[in-house]
Amino acid sequence: MTDKQRSTLRFAAQLMLGAVVGKVLGFVREILFAKHLGATAAADSFRAAMTAVLLPIAPLQGDLIPSTLVPLFLEWRREGRSVRMASSLCMVFTASATLLAVLIAVYAEVYVDLLLGGFSPEAKAMTAAFTRAMTPAMPASVLIAYFGCVEIALGRSRITSIRPSVQNVSVLIGIGVMSWTGEVIAIAWAFTAGLVLVALYGLAMLWREGEISPRAVRIGSGFEAVAVFFRRGRPLLIQPLAEQGNTLLERMLASALAVGTMASLDYARTITETVYYAVSQPVGYVVLGHEKAIDLRERVRALCSPILHLALPASAFVITFASDITAVVFGRGAFKAEAIASTALAMQGIAIGLWATTLGWILLRMLNADQRNGTAARILACAYAANMIVNVAMYRWLGLFGLGLGEAMRGLVLLGGTAYALGCTGVLLRLIARAAPVTLALAATGLLLQSGVHTPLMRLLAGTGLYGLVLVPWLLFGVPEMAWFRHRVFSRWTKSEPRVTAPGDAATAAWEARTLPNEASGNRAP
């Protein structure tokens, strides 16, 4: 294995480890949050306040930042002016976010009333108080996103890896203070403190290493950097606007439904977004850092086949056992039967398109890596538009399940659009056809378990065991694109060198020759 391959694998492993640790802490946070607040007006107000402070800065911390800033920073670095340009651009972003934070803090009541017209007066007042406490997190969040992209350009992942963990730990501390003092506002202040600490840590690290320096800030360089940044990222501007519009519409619709709707949606996403943060995001970052593939279709097949063969059954598992997952994970304290039912409905709706969302984000990164940012942005905007249409059409009749279906539709449109743009629709359909029979068989067996096993925990354990017994051997021996993994594992066990390629495994061999070391033949990836 070459040094570049080792570095890439190490970088991906660090991102995945940070995502997994952060997600575990996020589970603990949501479990305690559900125990103490459940799906109540206070829980809705906290979620709404998070939306209120993060929504205005979404363009400064969404996909526009990594897709534009990473290659731009590398270009400035080659020209020998990265410190001055990056520091000046950072100052402009921070000043803009700070100005927005001050305005929102001053006009919090008016802002919340416009954003969440369906809330009761008491819930609006509570949301405004939460929002004021969280406004310092706005410039901190922008700084974290900016510093994280600078580190990714340098092949590091410290800030990106620790953000979710520190943020979740800070909220856990806030929940502890709330349970001791009875002051719910403590959670909001703890959330803010965690982000501020990560931002200060990032500034200290990059300043010490000479990549960022307040002394290098120049007003002229700041204007130049902003102009270049938005000129390069102009095709991607439609993405954060569509994302903000979708979030705003969803919160408005949710505020018009029953109390606890927002909290139930977020509890459901705690489960479903695990796949994105553990798989799609780190794999997508690795794809973003690679050059354009020579044979794109074969690379899509080799990369996406194992993920699809796992994600499609995982979606079926979540749909089948949504109520059991919710009851086991959240069903304690203030989280009553009504909250379990509403969260399970949202989870089932989202899970219908979970597999598509997982693959769609990875294929979107392939478009970004191919410098087709405009195409990627248009596809994502269409996906969010489909989400909004389904939300408006379904929320009155299907409630939370309808809002979940909107998110599922977004994933399906995202996958279909990216596959079409990459010219791999046929490859993807064949992979889906291959994975569908096993997925349907597992789903049918899971439904039988629902009627045969009577407690949520036992049903969940039985379902997990069933899926594990089927999926592990199927992935290892039934998926041709896993041949390289089988070869590595078994060659180490048997100490044998010859490589045996499974019949019909030409795609895997071609992709492996370009991207993975081929120890058996003595060849090295170029």
Automatic annotation (TrEMBL):
<keyword id="KW-1003">Cell membrane</keyword>
<feature type="transmembrane region" description="Helical">
    <location>
        <begin position="86"/>
        <end position="108"/>
    </location>
</feature>
<feature type="transmembrane region" description="Helical">
    <location>
        <begin position="307"/>
        <end position="331"/>
    </location>
</feature>
<feature type="transmembrane region" description="Helical">
    <location>
        <begin position="128"/>
        <end position="149"/>
    </location>
</feature>
<feature type="transmembrane region" description="Helical">
    <location>
        <begin position="409"/>
        <end position="429"/>
    </location>
</feature>
<feature type="transmembrane region" description="Helical">
    <location>
        <begin position="376"/>
        <end position="397"/>
    </location>
</feature>
<dbReference type="InterPro" id="IPR004268">
    <property type="entry name" value="MurJ"/>
</dbReference>
<comment type="similarity">
    <text>Belongs to the MurJ/MviN family.</text>
</comment>
<keyword id="KW-0472">Membrane</keyword>
<feature type="transmembrane region" description="Helical">
    <location>
        <begin position="436"/>
        <end position="453"/>
    </location>
</feature>
<dbReference type="Pfam" id="PF03023">
    <property type="entry name" value="MurJ"/>
</dbReference>
<feature type="transmembrane region" description="Helical">
    <location>
        <begin position="343"/>
        <end position="364"/>
    </location>
</feature>
<dbReference type="InterPro" id="IPR051050">
    <property type="entry name" value="Lipid_II_flippase_MurJ/MviN"/>
</dbReference>
<comment type="function">
    <text>Involved in peptidoglycan biosynthesis. Transports lipid-linked peptidoglycan precursors from the inner to the outer leaflet of the cytoplasmic membrane.</text>
</comment>
<protein>
    <submittedName>
        <fullName>Peptidoglycan lipid II flippase</fullName>
    </submittedName>
</protein>
<feature type="transmembrane region" description="Helical">
    <location>
        <begin position="161"/>
        <end position="180"/>
    </location>
</feature>
<keyword id="KW-0133">Cell shape</keyword>
<feature type="transmembrane region" description="Helical">
    <location>
        <begin position="465"/>
        <end position="485"/>
    </location>
</feature>
<keyword id="KW-0573">Peptidoglycan synthesis</keyword>
<keyword id="KW-0812">Transmembrane</keyword>
<feature type="transmembrane region" description="Helical">
    <location>
        <begin position="186"/>
        <end position="207"/>
    </location>
</feature>
<keyword id="KW-1133">Transmembrane helix</keyword>
